[in-house]
Structures are given as structure tokens and as C-alpha cells.
Amino acid sequence: MSILSWIEEQRKLKLLNAPKYKKTDSNTAQGLWTRCDHCGVILYIKHLKENQRVCFGCGFHLQMTSSERIEHLIDTNTWHPINETLSPGDPLEFKDQKAYTERLKEAQERTGLQDGIQTGTGLLDGIPVALGVMDFNFMGGSMGSVVGEKITRLIEYATHQGLPLIIVCASGGARMQEGIFSLMQMAKISAALHVHQNCAKLLYIAVLTSPTTGGVTASFAMLGDLIFAEPKALIGFAGRRVIEQTLQEQLPDDFQTSEYLLHHGLLDLIIPRSFLKQALSETITLYKEAPLKTHGKILYGQRGSLTKVQEERFRRLLSKPNSDAYKTFVKEFESLLNVFNISNIDLTKSTSLEHALELATKKTTQINWLNQNQFKLRSSFNK
Ligand SMILES: [Zn+2]
To answer: What is the pLDDT of residues 342-354, one digit of tens each?
Structure first.
């Protein structure tokens, strides 16, 4: 480690250990001033926000909250959040110095979010997009089961609606308080992305901001058709010190910065924050009209058949088993099953109806159900 980088690290440590008045939270701003993490210049928060949290002194990109990011990227009044109320559980009943539930509650109160990501749809320069924005202020943007589930649902929604997908990453990695539950999100998200990108042939752009590390880098951050990053962003998997100790080797000073990664072919573009929206809109427009673009298909088992409104109507219908509409529905469903030559589902049983709802709303078991019945389905097609 050179002397300069040692001084730099000591300075950063000092900043890290500083008391909480430096907090860059927009809603509960406790002070008017903040300090640039890079050059140390004192900045007036109001002006800093107007400048999209880019330092006036050195052009360093400070962390943005997810709401600020959405405001910056999405046209005014066009943002529609998805799964806003999804909130985390505590499957392992994890406890270190504090209980995990306590940490969650504290973070929820501080940020006003249920978990470390906001997902939804909106217009980006008039183009409809599906956007997910991670929030580093919520437990270091760590990816727990809720973050994973929200991203997966966003991807599936984008796939069904044929929307280009943008995910802005800012994360310390998987959330250790949820153990294996957070690790399995990596595989789940990657599988959903596979359908989005390789089956439906839709565009996915990952935007990496500082820091993007750990499990997030190891899954969806690096799976973008195009990977954009902000200047001087910290992007990596394991931390610098861990790698240095493992390899017993000195790493270059700019190791794990976006510039270093671009130079080594891991990124497609480094784009300053002020041009990000324009770059995204131009890329999507270009992609839409690309002459060699091929159109894909969503696999049958993964195609959602109902819209949200239809799903809700369906749920209400099922809550009134004595209505005529309900009886008509059962009849129609029975005849549909007859077409496929499946007779072992007894619709008078409530579990079967729940099953039917699951199939229709594509909640969990559509693929399993198809797998179970595929021999019957095949034989009826072969007739
Ligand atoms: Zn600065």
C-alpha cells in the first residue's frame, strides 16, 4: 500500500467513525451541510441535491437515495411502484448485538421504505421502462429475500409487458442476517433474467453505482446486456483487503474502481450522473429500432395469464361461492380441463379451487402442475 493510499484510508476511516450528523438521508436531513467523501470540501445539501449529489469541488458522485434516483431518472408523475408493501420476515430469528427485527424496524423508520429497494414502472423520456433502484441507506443496500423477490417480480413483470428493464445497483452484497435465504436470491434473479433476456429477447441494462459489491455483483449486476457505471464507483466482489491477504500480493491503487473495470473489459460505459438519463433513453431507442434485433417468446409455463385487475376480480369471485358467476366459472374451468383430458381434479373441493386460483394467477405452482400433467397433455395433443 502506498503512503498516499494509506492516508486516504485513514481519512476514510475517520469519516466512517464520525458521528451521525453527516447522514445523507434526504427526508430526515439533520443538517444543512455535508462533506464530500472524496475531496473533503464542505457542501451545502440543498445545492448538492440540485446538482444530483455531484461534488462541486471535485465532481465526485456521492450516494443518492432511491427516491432521489427515481426522481432523477423517471419523468415527473409517471412513477408507479410495484409491491411497495412487501416487507421482510426474520426466518432465522437472527441476533447479533441487536435483533435483526430491531435493525429492520430502525431502518424502515429512518428511510420510510419496507426494504432496500424500490421497484416500479415509469416513463424515461417518454419511453415506458421497468426500473428497480437499490437504496444503500437501508442496511447497506443488502440483498435479503424481499429485495430478491421484488427484483424477480419486477423482471417477470417487465418480461410479460415487454418492457426494457433497468436496475440501479448500490449494495454491500447479500444480507447475512437472512443467511441462505438471501444467497438463493442470486439464483432466482438470474433465472428470471434468463427468461427476460434470452427467451423474450428483451433489454436489460444494469447501472452500477458506488458501491456495488458481494452477491449483487455476483448475480444481476454483471448480467446486464449493457453494464453502465458511474465514475469512480467501487465495484467488486470480495473486499480489497481480503484479496490482498489471500493472494499475498499488492493490488493497484485504482483496483475495483469503474475505470479499472472498464479498462479490463468488465463494463460497457462509464457515464456521469448528469448524462445518465439521456444515455439510457438513447440506448433503449437505438435498441428498439436495431435492424438485426430478433423477437423472442416467453416460455409457456412462465407466461402470466392475468393482469393485476383480472387477478383481483378473480379473487373476489372466489370469495362468493354461491354466486352465479362463480358457478359459470367452475363450469368453464371443468370444460377446459376436459379439453386437456384431465379429470382427476375435483372442483367441489376447496383445495382444488385454491389450486385453480394458483394456476390462474401464476402464484407458485404453474410449472409444477404442468410438469405433473405433461404426459396427459401430450397424449391429448397426440390424438
Ligand atoms: Zn469532492
So the answer is: 555 555 555 555 5
Same-domain check for residues 241 and 177 = yes
Q: Which helix (H) or strand (E) holds 97?
A: none
Q: Which three cell numbers stand for residue 137?
A: 441507506
pLDDT at 95 over 50: yes
- Whether residue 133 contacts residue 70, with contact meaning beta carbons closer than 8 Å, is answered with yes
CA pair distance 155, 164, nearest whole angstrom:
9
Same domain for 57 and 71: no
Ligand 1 being an ion, which residues bring their Cβ within 5 A of it?
36, 38-39, 41, 55, 57-58, 60
Residues 201 and 338 in one domain: no
Find the 62 Cα to ligand 1 centroid distance in Å. 9
Question: Structure pTM?
Answer: 0.72
Q: Dihedral angle at the C-alpha atoms of 87, 93, 99, 103, nearest 10 degrees?
A: -20
Domain span at 316: 304-382
DSSP code at position 178:
G
Q: How distant, in Å, are the alpha carbons of 6, 152, 216, 239 from that of 243?
A: 17, 31, 18, 7
